[in-house]
Amino acid sequence: MARFSASVIIAPRVTAEAYFDRVAAYLAGMMRDRTAIGWHLDQIALNVAHLASDDISLEPLPAGVMLSAAPGQEIPPEAFFWSVTYSISSNAQKLTETAFTRYEKAPFVVLTHIYKHSNDFVATANSVVAENYGNVTHIVKDYNYALANFIFDCVDPDFIVVDGPKSVASLVASMTLEPPPIFVHLSCGERLRPGGLLDLMLAVEKGEVIAFPSGEDGLMPLLIPPNLRITEGGETPAIFRWHRTRAG
Question: String of b and e for 63-99 (b: at least 16 CB within 10 Å)?
Fold first, then answer.
């Protein structure tokens, strides 16, 4: 009946808004018509919007990334999305299983240090903004007030500047981020590879990132898989997690 079933759609924000506006318009029209078909209306709406969207290109995801398994069934490593399917009441049990309860919600902090000049900072800042993740904060440690005369017209100023003697640690502590954030040290001039942060998030979620805990509060080094490329140049940035050994 429809080519979409329990679908996952990943798209740039503007494209996604246009597509789902059409989905919403179709749903609204059908729900006002008491004689219209109601079963699987969500799948039909996704398909109709696709057929009416010659200006939007959709490519199918590999079948394995979306899983509609029964409760208790083993989840293969290639599955990134799992359908609950509440139309079957017994599926509510899925929400109590490890795949949901261990879901990684950690905030990420991209940290850039600037010392004597702000050369190439625009490329670095814009590469972070382009990823457009709500759980990512870009903090810039400006040691010698190099950004004092920086012209922000050429960069989306979606970052926090910590200048002079101010401490990044005290700022992060005041943000009360839970769970403790993961830091990605991105040098001035380096650029994130498109999708690099997402790959890191998925590696954390899948347990592929190894931590080296310490006995004191501070930054705990993290070791990422050797084939995980986060920056455009292929360099592996230092990655840490804020580590607390006591409350407060």
Answer: eeebbbbeeeeeeeeebbebeeeeeeeebeebeeeee
